[in-house]
Amino acid sequence: MFFLAFSCKSQDTSTTSKDNISQIIRDTFTIISVQNPKSHISIDSFETATSKNRKQSSNETHHIWNDLLKAYVSEDGQVDYSGFKKNHTKLLEYFKVLEDYFTESQLNKNEKLAYWINAYNAFTIDLILRHYPIKSIKDIKNPWDQRLWKLKNTWYSLNDIEHTILRKMQEPRIHFAIVCASVSCPNLQNEAFQSSILDKQLTIATTSFLSDTSKNKIEKNHLELSKIFQWFSKDFKQNGGLIDFLNQYVPFEISEKATKRFKTYNWNLNEL
């Protein structure tokens, strides 16, 4: 068996065309089941296998996590924690890959986002498995503040990753990609986030969350929103107000005068 070491040319996917976003929005709101697109990685150049500084592709780095998600997460984001528990050692193997790949200074923005989103979600699953069976993440004492995961010389908590790393990257859609293991959270995607298709994945995660009427009810003149929009209101006002943000991802124009309320958050475990 022969293996070729290659590097993937990083593409700037910080923005998508208006037509592409519109198509994604139409698909999300008109099709009951949203299927996540498969990535296609184009090879830009070959490197020698002896190169000590070769960076793994996003797909290679996160393939263990991707396989676990495919095996234990349903299309609608429900998690088979019992199945995950039986394969916990594989999850721990992924943590070792994350640590080996921890060269943040060499990563571009999309690579950093994909790395930390995947890490956050994998660490959340690990936290649940340490205490499983449980009914809610809130059954765990200080679940977001425990520094349980070590990358190189630093111990991280979920709050460390969310607030001191991800939120500072000024990408509000991360709130629909990272998951708190609860019913009212955004669905855990059943594929790993990858830098090469990250913008499309974040757009799908956002439109899927907004179109889920159990979590948000969005009309032109009235909004019943997830408390995520209340807790992290500042993050959605980077380029205007909340209505401006929402109008990018719904198939109609929400009135600036629309009334709004925030829905009760269901912290029950998002278990299959």
Automatic annotation (TrEMBL):
Q: Taking every annotated instance into account, which residue ranges of this chain make up the domain DUF547?
A: 105-210
Please identify the protein, giving its name as recorded.
Answer: DUF547 domain-containing protein
Q: Which organism does this record belong to?
A: Allotamlana fucoidanivorans
